[in-house]
Amino acid sequence: MAASRLQELRADITDESYRVAILVGIASIPFTVFLSRGLVFDEGQIAGGRITGSPLLVAGVVVGYLYSERPSGSRRAGVLTGITGSIAVVLLYLLNLFATISSVSQWVAVVALLATPLALVLGVLLCAFVGLLGAVIGDWARTTALDRLPFPRKE
């Protein structure tokens, strides 16, 4: 079952209909890194910090708006945007991990290394959810909210 989901994800990533969603996810990476830069570059910061999800949420809203009337579906596009944008979260996590390992005891470093795969999977899943949430908002804005505006919408 899990293998079929991974094959489906691989097919979606290579599908040309989702190219814009993937590019928007890639475009969110520098903004996520920039807005979370204090996490890694703060000398007093060890083992923790915050990674902002705002750029990924905005990317999801954009993708949801763009894909709302496409047959490929805005929700799947939002998930792909989130997965693509999770590259920033993985990068920031790994940079923080290296900074933490170099400044803590060996026991804490081993625990941090052992927890890394689980933390990375949870980070990617959370990013996929944020992308999905943004896509739902963008889809709603295009299909429902814009119809309620007092002026006619140009098609």
UniProtKB/TrEMBL annotation:
Where does the sequence pass through the membrane? 20-40, 46-67, 79-101, 107-138
Q: Which UniProt keywords apply?
A: Membrane, Transmembrane, Transmembrane helix
> Is Membrane found in the keyword set?
yes
Q: Does the entry feature the keyword Transmembrane helix, yes or no?
A: yes
Record InterPro entries: DUF5518 (IPR040493)
Q: From which domain of life does this come? A: Archaea
- The protein's name: DUF5518 domain-containing protein
Organism equals Halorientalis brevis
